[in-house]
Amino acid sequence: MNHSIAIRGEYIELFRLLKLARIVETGWQAKELIRKETVRLGDVTVHELRKKIRPGDTVVCGEEIIAVTASDPA
């Protein structure tokens, strides 16, 4: 499933993004996915729970693809 997540600010931490996309419900579940090396930023496996994900980045977790965009300023 593909997700498009718009964020405010410069970045979002990886575990928060996984929760926002509803791939996990808790930070602990996010940690387990990352520990099992199932999360990639582009083509690179991510090992950091608090990795800074910025607009333009694509995160892949199994069959889930998350495209991160910048939210429109209000």
Molecular structure report:
- The chain is an alpha+beta fold and 74 residues long.
- It has one domain: RNA-binding S4 domain (Structural Genomics Hypothetical 15.5 Kd Protein In mrcA-pckA Intergenic Region, Chain A, Roll), CATH 3.10.290.
- Helices cover 22% and strands 35% of the residues.
- It contains 2 helices and 7 strands, in the order E-E-H-H-E-E-E-E-E.
- The strands form 2 sheets. A 5-stranded mixed beta sheet has the order 1-7-6-3-4, with no helix packed on it. It has a two-stranded antiparallel sheet with strand order 2-5.
- Strand 6 and strand 7 form a beta hairpin.
- It is globular and about 35 Å long.
Number of H/I helices: 2
| Residue fraction in strands | 35-45%
Architecture, according to CATH? Answer: Roll
Major β-sheet strand ordering: 1-7-6-3-4
Which structural class should the secondary elements be placed in?
alpha+beta
Q: What is the residue-averaged pLDDT?
A: 92
Q: Helical amount among residues, as a percent range? A: 10-25%
Q: Measured on Cα atoms, how large is the radius of gyration?
A: 11 Å
CATH superfamily caption = RNA-binding S4 domain
Give the tally of β-strands. Answer: 7
At the first level of CATH, what is the class? Alpha Beta
